[in-house]
Predict the 3D structure of the following.
Amino acid sequence: MESSSRITVTQREQSMVMNDVKMMYEIYASVPPKTQRLMMELQRDNHMEYLLRGLQQLGPSFCVLDANRPWICYWILHSIALLGQSVDAALEDRTIDFLSRCQGPDGGYAGGPGQARSCFFLEDCCSTAVFIFYQMPHLATTYAAVNALITLGSDKSLLSIDRGKMYTFLKHMKDPSGAFRMHDEGEIDVRACYTAISVASMLNILDDDLVRNVGNYILSCQTYEGGIAGEPGSEAHGGYTFCGLATMILINEVNRLDLAALIDWVVFRQGVEGGFQGRANKLVDGCYSFWQSGPGEAEYHIDSPEATPESDISEGKESSDGTSSEGSQNASCPVNFDNVGFVSSEGLAEREPLFHGIALQRYILLCSQDPGGGLKDKPRKSRDYYHTCYCLSGLSVCQYSWLKDEDASPLPRAVLGPHSNLLEPIHPIFNVVLDRYHEAHEFFSRS
Amino acid sequence: MDSDKEQLEQETLPLSLRPEWSDVKPIPQDDGPNPVVQIAYKQDFRETMDYFRAIYSAKELSPRALQLTREAILLNPGNYTIKTLKKGKCVSENGEAVMPKIFMNVWHFRRQILEALDANLPEELDFVGCIAKDNSKNYQIWHHRRWVAQKLGTSATSKELDFTRKILSLDAKNYHAWSHRQWVLQALGGWEDELDYCQQLLEEDIYNNSAWNQRYFVITRSPFLGGLEAMRDSEVSYTVEAIMANPDNESPWRYLRGLYKNNTESWINDPKVSSVCLKVLNAKSNHVFALSMLLDLLCHGFQPSQDFREAIDALTSDSAPIDSDLAKAICDVLQRVDMMRANYWIWRKSKLTPVA
């Protein structure tokens, strides 16, 4: 550190990206209002066209994602749902059929389909095909498939998930330490914990056996910086921070984390560009619009540790009809975690997010949007389905982040650009569109 | 040379035309009658995977199966890696070579074969090394490498440390490489030079947060350094120097706080901490992190001297009356100078407990 005048790699790369972003904002500032409106508009038709095309057919470059096809389904279907659209009945049937082919005999979903063999000799199962698997079931693709099927939302879609076998699969992925493995003999990390707990929670099969000690593992991954790392000792990272925090909320152990440090770390990830970076001193990336703003939303409902956290969080809030929140497994909304043991901030009809929602929307619309359809990491990068999904998810979080009550419609000032930019609200822990979450939640509560 | 050439020709021949595969009936992928997200596979990709399915379902743990997993892994849309590897070189010829993120099952099956054949594992490390250089962000490759290194035990220590060092020289913040390196240190050892390595990386780029994180890992976990308490004094001096050189650098600020993890008392009472805040505040630029740390100190009971109040007074605009509560005054300044986080600072202010 002999001299502060020498420019380091980090500084050089940062200043290059900053220049690109600055240029986008300067162009925007210099064009006439009509062009400005167009630039700030979410190009819905083009995004839909890009998404629907991918759901049908992908080019040879997608060979790289051959073991991630349920992910592609989820990214595309969730993006379509965020845009308030849905796929037609035929396409829905095809998707259900395809994902069913990915569900292995032990309940987990693999990255691609197994081989259908009709079963002639087993009397009991003549009606069902038997699949022989060449890809292993994996927690990440299982999470993607379940979220995709919930996003489709029909009874047929939800019924296609074998919850009994899924429970067995999740148990099989659970390590004696309490954490989860990604696949048979696979790596243990915070992603695996989140995807397992999220799936179990969505399908209403979460029990003490699955929860046991997973909180200890997440806790061991919170770093000195405040964020959460993929494994104990690694660097705090936006994706893992989301996964770790969401897991802790779902298992009702969120107060074991150092939340003051975590919140502080997250809000500092929003850079001068308006978008979020994944780690300290790294570059902005559109996908963190979701990974970092989602936790921001959840955190908002946790009272400051400088106040008296214990009493604030453990006391069940009395709801207006006099029943305690503990008993009311009512409609959980994206910004109100009563169903997972939180109390919401009281008294205000509206509130502001802890991050800068308008700056983030500006970054997403001007720097992460490909006007021809699809969204991306940053200027000079190309669109892809992953970034389309997570930039749109982040945009939705921003648009609804002012709201306390899910029935209220967003305040005009919360939505940047024309009102047609308004997306569907999401559940920030599972990242599925809120309506679909409620439907699935009700469906799986019945059985 | 000739045998290399022969193998190269052998590998470019379609599997269906190779005599040693004539007894195998390839199994095509069954996407169903009307699949979604259907990929237009390239011919060589499709054929290799069809043969892979055949040996996988037959559970054939043979040398030719090992060879087939190698070819499957080397299949690559950019085709750079495959060319260079076939020539026996490790260097990427051109730009970005995108490794298929596929083949988790291929890697998994390869491990079964390696185990069954009692294969040469150092050779396997070389193979993985060649691929990882072009595909250093692929989970499966690192997971595989960890498996091989674990089998080899301490004989792999220096090779693994060298290898991660090489990857990090190309991308100093590669998450997988750091994770692997930490695993090597904990499972196989090699801590002796690690603090020097962190030092070197930080000299190259003091903004490299991954190197700061590794430094924290070393001082808290190395069996040779005596732990956080023993290291604190010298580390605080190092960190304060880094902060003074670049007060806008978030990494040493977070590191400084981390040095007092679980010891809030010493953090509040160590004059080195409060004085670095004061020095940066008095310089009147790039002072967001200094204000933020001072706010945290105050929230935890730090008793400020008059110097701190004057420093904050100097940062407050003339028109606005300064809050008599120093923590609140700091929140006001932060709300003004750190606009991206204005809401956060308002929220922090609302959560301050009134001074008794």
About this structure: Chain B has three domains: 1-119, 120-226, 258-356.
